[in-house]
Amino acid sequence: MAVAELIDRKRLGGRLTRAELHALVDGHLRGDVPDYQVAAWLMAVCWRGMSPDELADLTMVMAESGRQLDLSSLGQLAVDKHSTGGVGDTTSLVVVPLVAACGVPVAKMSGRGLGFSGGTLDKLESLPGFRVDLSAEQFVEQLGTVGAVIAGQSPELAPADGKLYALRDVTATVASVPLIASSVMSKKLAGGAPIIVLDVKCGRGAFMQTESEARELAEAMIAIGQAAGRIVTAFVTDMEQPLGSMVGNALEVRQAVNALRGSTDSPRLLELARVLAAEMLLLAGAAPDPEGAHHLIARALRDGSALAKLRDLVAAQGGDPTPIDRPEQLPTARLRRAVPASGDGYLAVVDPLAVARAANRLGAGRERKGDSIDPAVGVELSKSLGSPVTRGEPLAVIHANDDARLAEALALLAGAFVIAPEPADPPPLIRARMSAEA
Amino acid sequence: MAVAELIDRKRLGGRLTRAELHALVDGHLRGDVPDYQVAAWLMAVCWRGMSPDELADLTMVMAESGRQLDLSSLGQLAVDKHSTGGVGDTTSLVVVPLVAACGVPVAKMSGRGLGFSGGTLDKLESLPGFRVDLSAEQFVEQLGTVGAVIAGQSPELAPADGKLYALRDVTATVASVPLIASSVMSKKLAGGAPIIVLDVKCGRGAFMQTESEARELAEAMIAIGQAAGRIVTAFVTDMEQPLGSMVGNALEVRQAVNALRGSTDSPRLLELARVLAAEMLLLAGAAPDPEGAHHLIARALRDGSALAKLRDLVAAQGGDPTPIDRPEQLPTARLRRAVPASGDGYLAVVDPLAVARAANRLGAGRERKGDSIDPAVGVELSKSLGSPVTRGEPLAVIHANDDARLAEALALLAGAFVIAPEPADPPPLIRARMSAEA
Asked: Rounded to whole angstroms, what are the CA distances from A17 to A9, A207, B380?
């Protein structure tokens, strides 16, 4: 099979068969198909898109390129949860123990933070000793014993995605619905959970800036899941402002712990966590209806079982669980500086990208792979979109360990806020709930 | 400058500056920019096209990637001629000596035949001893002494095109108007001739199948020439049937020699040669008007000076000129076989691709670079489009050196002809004459 002919067919808007996609993608992984041919094909996919059938075939080929976890030994349905990446989005740290505490095993594979979006693994590493690199055997075992696991993507799972992603990153072929959908879903399929709940962010702090783009991505991922026999629900959720009030690794762990203790400090984070958790419980059959699911969730928050599950998860992965009960033991930054409001009015913009950039400058995130991270630093937002503000009042507090970086973050944050004379309603948090037609 | 950002801009339909194109294309030539990034950019160019400014910048960058010939020492304007490639198209072998015999130096750089289109260099190598690989110094010197030169593309000229073309060939990015136009024109610009006459073929035997595609390519090349200060005329000409009646290397040399001797055996070849030659003479200022140009052409054919110029060119490049005067000394094939008409009627199709494939099977062309060529073999067409035919009458004669290949060529040629009950006019030879607006 001549690879140039496959590229040419996609270039002209045609589709490749599963065998052809296997020759291309698996051939690339094995080194038989050179990067330059795959790069041309990737750009042709950006151009022409993929039919649902072709996309499902591609994703399956990627999922089957490495090991595939078998979770059947659990004896019950496990769920997985994935977010396309946002700012101040510590939902997984709330949802995973919460759902597990309600009796449904949660098998969560997470990534590192890169660019503007934070990474669950980086947050958990604020806890001394926490190990994110579990073997497949350890992963499945902990799922059985603790009922919850959050680990790094194993390089054994969907290795074709790893190689494709590295190439997409340097060939400007990241921004493509089928390529994003196949990248996410190939790892979810290889991860083995029969139930998958997706959180597709949209807005100025997300990869998908508009709701229609986010819906398109959600639809593509749902169709892949359906073709692979998985149960998938996707929520399109707002990323016009940071989700929680904390942006930074230890700050977000603290916020998640507070939420699991019932704090309503961050109502948007708590609302999203409840919505996602309820969906996971319903799909897993742990609750007969939404009311039942929300009842289970309220109880797990109230009786401390959700918090206890986080403690168990941290301990099982070698971390020190003490800060779960004494959050003041989490790393804290040396310097604090308030960002004052420049005038009176209502917050019309809280730009999540500007907040993320400020946090990254402080050392909370990576601009490049391999950059080191300071767990203590970050930005604590005092106000959310639509709030009334008065001149001089703090809009945010910067947590820093370095004076020069503090100054840079301050400058970046100055551009993050817009104050308008009239109030406007912030966009709704949950934009859409989508699932395959029965 | 991050290459991925340049690719991304083109992906989104934007344009790159000349400095950015230089970084990309020259960086690729030097090995600083990897093939996979260039491949993604090439596919993005296929997708988004290029503005005239961007295309001129790209072509200039490619032309400046190597040596550029300086023909100013000639003391008069030299002309170049280029065809996008057709079947039975031996025009250059007629036009180059004809125009030179009228006093205008012709600096022609040619390619090898590849795929269905024949190559002027392969035809000339039917003459024992003929050398196509002249140095730049030899090329310019012969232009001064003989006034005509036909040599192979020097690898020193537009080397960026050579590297890009090799990549396009394996990444399905050949079929793109800006990429074809920049490839052709970068070599023409580096070749140094201030006047360029282009023959853009259209029809089933050409890369551009429709007249509108051919016009688009012609316009792009004219705009590049204008931006580079060259005088360019492009003709869009018919390739619905082979141009001349001979397809094969020595056969086409013989046909060119016959045409230079005034034979009207192949009226379409002669008509095209006259049209192109007249344009070259007019643009070079050798004739005041078309009538004057055609007068010069008729005289050069009649008085033998055009034929003498071909003899001089062959001798200057080390070839044996005897066959110019005794064409029976050209290589001839051992086997002849007529292809009979399958019925009565009028020739409605003479498929140039089928004829070319038959000739290639006989050994006249290359399916892959490096294939060897048999100068003697080929196909001699007895009839042209629209001719009346009677059952059993020969439509073509196959010239072969191998029985098995003869049988294969016969089978291929059987599909080349369609006989219809009613006559239809063949398409006009000259579809359009295009040049830059003054």
From this structure: 11, 29, 43
